[in-house]
Structures are given as structure tokens and as C-alpha cells.
Design a protein that fits this description.
The protein is mostly helical. About 75% of the residues lie in helices and about 0% in strands.
Length: about 290
């Protein structure tokens, strides 16, 4: 007995609804159980909401319009608020340099490792598993854990931060890159194989042009993440503006906490803007 299209469509829709309800119920159960294990409490949330902005209010500088542009010895002036800028700005530049260096190095190695780690490049299975295992280990270890290890080896400074960011970024970028290679279209690869192209030529001319835009997008995104993460690494002495931030917090120099946070926000915003412009220029070859 033949089935009409409408009946078949209704069967599929009913099946999708049942599966959707089952998955929604399962996710809700997991979500509620996770909240129970984490000791989530609406009472704590309700009591804490009125104090949410207390810390922000505490770190805000005291500025007076009458002396706003006075010298650095006058309380309430901009110069008095930024009296440590001559120390903070070089540290900020150091943080930016570390983030850029770690991102470039890790992305280059990840781009090389992504192709043999992908399942659609006919790489030996053992090599593929080894590369994936190394990448998984690098990204499983948090940046702070890597930083602690390198601080113990090399001492306090930007070098531990650089290695910590580079290793973690390599693990993360490799996974993102080889997954991008795996979802690339195999039609160009099949055409090149029919023409007698070698495996390297198939990856170079069949896969690389497809994944380049994705690689660039992930690299720019990782640059922003590495800059933000490098500020946290100052907690363990990995140098940069993060160390200045942690020192200000420990010494209760709240005005300097707000100054450092303002610099971080500005740099992240500028990086986001410039990365968008550079990505547009590199992919399209024209100025936006």
C-alpha cells in the first residue's frame, strides 16, 4: 500500500517532535542535577544581586571636575589616577607582544599538524592518533597550569606566559583546524587525484584554498583570547599587565585596578576592530 507525501511528512514531523521532547527532557534533567550538585540557590542569587556592583563602585576612581586636568600630585585629577601609566604601558605592550607571538607560532604549527590529523587526508592512522593525542593533552592542561610549570623552570617573566599560551593554543587550534579540513568538500581532491596529483598536491591545491578563510578567522579569534588569557597568567607571575593587575588587587590599590581594566578593555576592542579589518583585507584583497 503506497503512502502519500502528506502522511510521510506527518510521520517524520511526529518523530522529530518526540525526539525533540525526549532530548529537551534529558537536557533539563541534567541541567537541574548539575545545579543541585553545584549547590545552586535562588536565595543566594537574590541576596547577592543588590551587591553585584559594589566592587565596581569601589574600584571607580574619585575624579573632581574642578581639578580634572591638574598635575599628578592633585587628588581627583586624571593625572593622579594614571600615576603608574609609565609602568603599566610597557607591561601592556609586553602582554600584547606575548599574545601575538604565541598566537602566530601556535597557529603555524597547528596548520601544519591539522592536515595529517584529519581523517580525509589519507594519513597513516598511527600518526593521526599521535597528533590528536598531543593536541588534546596541550589543550586539556589549563594555561595557568602550564604557566606554573614554566615559571618554576624559567622564573617570573613573560617567557612562561609565552610558552603556556603557545602550547594551549596549539592544542585548541589543531582541533579547530583539522575539523575544518574534515568538513571541506572532497570534489577538488577527487579531481586532482584523477589527474594524478600526489597527496601533498591534493592537500595544497584541493584543501588548503577551502580552509584558509576558516584558519584565519580562528587565528584572529585566538589572538583576542590569548590577550585576555595572558592578563590572567599574571596571577602566577607570568609577567605582563596581568601581574600589575594582580599586584594592585592584592595591595587594595583599587584606583589602579580600574586603570588596568580600562586599558585591557581598550586593547581588546582595538584588537577586535583590527582583526576584522585584516581578515576582510586578507580574504578579499580590498580595503573595507
Amino acid at each position: 500500500m503506497s503512502i502519500t507525501f502528506n502522511d510521510y511528512y506527518q510521520q517524520i514531523r511526529q518523530k522529530q517532535r518526540r525526539e525533540g521532547l525526549l532530548w529537551s527532557a534529558a537536557i533539563l534533567v541534567v541541567y537541574l542535577y548539575s545545579g543541585h550538585i553545584a549547590e545552586f540557590s535562588w536565595q543566594v542569587i537574590w541576596q547577592g544581586v543588590p551587591h553585584f556592583f559594589d566592587y565596581i563602585d569601589e574600584i571607580m576612581p574619585t575624579l573632581h571636575l574642578s581639578v580634572l586636568f591638574a598635575d599628578g600630585h592633585t587628588k581627583g585629577s586624571l593625572a593622579y589616577w594614571g600615576y603608574r601609566l609609565h609602568i603599566q604601558l610597557p607591561l601592556l605592550g609586553q602582554t600584547i607582544a606575548v599574545a601575538i607571538a604565541a598566537t602566530i607560532l601556535s597557529s603555524l604549527f597547528a596548520a601544519v599538524a591539522a592536515f595529517p590529523a584529519a581523517t580525509n587526508t589519507q594519513t597513516h592512522r598511527l600518526l593521526r592518533y599521535v597528533l590528536r593525542a598531543v593536541a588534546a593533552f596541550c589543550r586539556t592542561m589549563p594555561e595557568l597550569a602550564w604557566a606554573v610549570m614554566f615559571v618554576m623552570a624559567f622564573g617570573i617573566g613573560p617567557i612562561p606566559g609565552f610558552f603556556a599560551l603557545a602550547l594551549h593554543s596549539f592544542g585548541t587550534q589543531t582541533k579547530l583546524f583539522y575539523e575544518s579540513v574534515e568538513v571541506a568538500s572532497d570534489k577538488p581532491v577527487r579531481g586532482l587525484r584523477a589527474l594524478g596529483a600526489t597527496r601533498m598536491e591534493r592537500m595544497r591545491y584541493g584543501l588548503w584554498p577551502q580552509v584558509t578563510p576558516t584558519f584565519l578567522s580562528f587565528t584572529f579569534m585566538r589572538l583576542e583570547c590569548n590577550f585576555r588569557q595572558s592578563t590572567i597568567l599574571g596571577l602566577v607571575g607570568a609577567g605582563g599587565i596581568g601581574q600589575e593587575l594582580m599586584t594592585s588587587i592584592k595591595l587594595d590599590h583599587f584606583d589602579q585596578v580600574s586603570m588596568v581594566l580600562l586599558q585591557i578593555i581598550i586593547v581588546v576592542s582595538v584588537l577586535d576592530y583590527l582583526s576584522g579589518k585584516m581578515r576582510h583585507y586578507l580574504l578579499e584583497g580590498t580595503r573595507p
